[in-house]
Amino acid sequence: MTTNSAERALESLLREADHAQRAGDRARANTAFRQILSVAPDHPVALNALGMAALGHDDRAAAAYFVRAADADPTAAPLWMNLASAHRGLGDADAERAALERALATDQRNLMANVRIAELFERIGDTSAAAFRWGGVATIARSIPDRAPALDQLLTRAMERIAVLTQALSDDVDVAMQPLRNTVDAEQRRRFDACVDAMLGRRRIYAPAPHGLHFPFLPADEFFAREHFAWLTDLEAATPAILAELEALLSAPTPAFTPYVTITPGTPANLWSALDRSEKWSVQYLWRYGVRNDAVCARCPQTAAILDTLPLSDIAGRAPTAFFSILKPGTHLPPHTGVSNIRSIVHLPLIVPDKCGFRVGGETREWRVGEAFVFDDTIEHEAWNDSDEIRAVLIVDVWNPYLTDDERTMVRHLFEALGSRLGDNSQISD
């Protein structure tokens, strides 16, 4: 048979097969496809069609057809997908995975190949690989503009599978690590726990974001370890006396507590606008920007005395700041960051009703009366009082524990040399 006559014969047989398929005459279509193979043994369309005809009732024969078809046209991802289906029917997970990986090798953004291999990994119990591939499904689906409802449903399914698989992986890790964790003090394993939680997507790792002076290379931690602050125990022991002095201030008409947030008129709206000059968050200063409030300190002598024993962040005209902070019922301070990481912020809780909370970065804590903690306020943090009573905390600036004595001295001299050139370096802290 000449080349031209062979081509005409193939075209005629392909038309016949197509007509038969459209008419639903599978037997006649398969006869035509077999005749095509007698003329062109490696014809991928005929091989694929015969493979599809066998799929589901003779998966071994189907696989043989698909292998020949894929060998004839190795860049055709649907042929590898069909081969994967045959291997799935045969229960050969390794061969199914190999076929799907060949499909993905032509295009890693092949949506259905990602779905199929994610399903495969779930079936064989490879939770991590399944979650990764479902993540790919979600990413691809999101990138498609004007998604049809079926794609939205697929995206929803992918997100559900990611959540389930991530939880399963988390549970496995927790079970595996629990015996060792039980032997390690909670404070000593805190950083490791944060590492694992971030790896498993259970939390974010927040970086310091000061909106003023950023002292580089200091360890970034949301809540500092108590071991850095030997004096915390003495501060906590003074809680009854400090609380009594606060209550005396609250019951007296003067000096009045004043709004913490005061924004210069004309300032564009920002996250603090809702609290501008509001008594929802009010304060009484014992120290402010390095200046001692003698009148308030005289009314709170025991509080003033304990403050004098602390390593306050002393910078002329700028630090320390120490104050009683009052949150009215229903008040929420928005997520924000402080001015500089050269300092640490101490909270000594004094009045803490239920439904109050405090988050720094990825860790949320409850205030407990008389239990102080120290945190880096240049890491995003927020506070709330969802109770029907006020919440009261003594807040104090101290030096960042990782600054050396020489560094503290140089920082003091830096601001002395700059004088007033930096302007008002006030900060938002809570």
Please describe the topology of this protein.
Layout (H helix, E strand, L loop, with lengths): L2 H20 L3 H14 L4 H11 L4 H14 L4 H13 L3 H14 L4 H14 L2 H17 L5 H33 L8 H10 L32 H6 L1 H13 L6 E2 L21 E8 L2 E2 L1 H6 L1 H8 L13 E6 L3 E6 L6 E9 L4 E5 L2 E3 L7 E3 L5 E5 L5 E9 L5 H14 L12
Antiparallel strand pairs: 1-2, 2-3, 2-4, 4-11, 5-10, 6-9, 6-11, 7-8, 7-10
Helix pairs in contact: 1-2, 2-3, 3-4, 4-5, 5-6, 6-7, 7-8, 8-9
Question: How is this structure best described in words?
Answer:
- The chain is an alpha+beta fold and 430 residues long.
- The chain contains 15 helices and 11 strands.
- It has helices spanning 3-22, 26-39, 44-54, 59-72, 77-89, 93-106, 111-124, 127-143, 149-181, 190-199, 232-237, 239-251, 294-299, 301-308, 405-418; strands at 258-259, 281-288, 291-292, 322-327, 331-336, 343-351, 356-360, 363-365, 373-375, 381-385, 391-399.
- Strand 7 and strand 8 (363-365) form a beta hairpin.
- It is elongated, with a radius of gyration of 35 Å.
- The N and C termini lie far apart (91 Å).
- 32% of the residues are buried.
